[in-house]
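User: Last request for today: this protein with phenylalanine, please.
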Amino acid sequence: MQPAKHEHWSSGFTFLLAAVGSAVGLGNIWRFPYVVAENGGGAFVLIYLAIVFVFGIPLLMSELMIGRSSQKPPLSAIQTFGRGSRAKKLWNALGWSYLLVPLGILTFYSVVAGWTLDYAFGMSIGTFNNLEDGASASMFQDLLQSPIKLVFWMTLSIGITVGIVARGLKSGLEQTVKILMPALFVILIILVLYASITGDFAKSFAFMFEPDFSKITPELVLMAAGQAFFSLSLGSGAIMVYGSYLTRDISIPKMAVGVALADSGVALLAGFAIFPIVFAFGVDHSAGPGLVFVTLPIVFNDMGGIGQIFGVLFFLLLAFAAVTSTISLLEPMVAQLSEEGTFKRARAAIYSGAVLWVVGVFVALSNNILSDVHPLGFLPLFEGKTIEGVIEFLSANVFMLLNGLLVSVFVGWSIKRTVTLEEMGLGDSVLFKIWFMLVRFVVPLGVGFIFYDVVL
Ligand code: PHE
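Assistant: Here's the final one, the structure of the complex with phenylalanine:
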């Protein structure tokens, strides 16, 4: 059978919608606000933004470049470039890591995406109306304790993702982001306007932008780096595979800057949608992962009738943000199987979805029935971690950073400078030299240092 044809984005704008769609996800709207709250506000935001610009943009450019220049999915792309190199084996391993990390992320991401579907549905049928004190926390616990619910919503989330990816780049991914991304922005703006009119905007602004420098510790820098990588979809094949569908007339540096600005912009906006109302209602803002699932239903409930509408909007926003990310996480594997292998795209999507589902069930159940299973628990680093904990730690904290580190070495030292020079389209300018210097020295040393601190 002929391998599937390699499609291209209709325009730079549709690429941008898709790449921003990948970057903007649960990481921005669910994770960012609670991580900011847990890490003391302004200082964290400042370090996070610095990492996005100094490490994030150069890495986005590097990954887009590998994808576009090779016109192949991540594993084959990295293998192609690595072929002539002395470190061929290392690059081969890097390719595999770029293929498998997104699937690892998808296993737990699909479970959380399922929570957002459950909440959007629950909000719309009024499950969260007239909440008694404490009811919101116990409803969240009930969800986590229910194997059936978790698996049901996760299955729906994976099903939607498979359905979209199976249809291909133009009729699947592009169509989806063209509808969901504008909807996402509109909902977010409505929520921010509402929060800033009714909530405590001034306090939120001070909380997010007035850094208390005494709070900056090595741990805070680590958290900020992890958040930045995850939020920009780096080190995971998503950006690289999207880069492979870029045509040559599109400027990689411009696209990378666009993605970084939009992604951090949305994270900050999510903060401004959540903190003002959280502060105004005097609920605990450092509620951890439960911040949006436990705290916000209380706030929406206190608002009366209109609260339900905002509640539905908010959880739909989360669900949309999740879908435009999950499709980018499944795409590397599906593209690899269908373009480089002999599978039809739809089959490739279904098979990958099936494998994902099986692992996903274990991840979902590690919240309840399997909560006492601690794989790798004999290693100090993994002590007490559940199946979910191990997969999340390995894919999001270890391999994403490691991939980012290695890819910068790959682009900076292994791929020919003439290739990078041409792909960037900046000429041999100061900008190109700055990028090249960041990728050769600053990113590997910086990420290496952070990695050393987290893992070793
Ligand atoms: N960037 C997404 C988010 O913030 C998650 C993601 C990671 C998507 C890696 C694709 C690849 O939610």
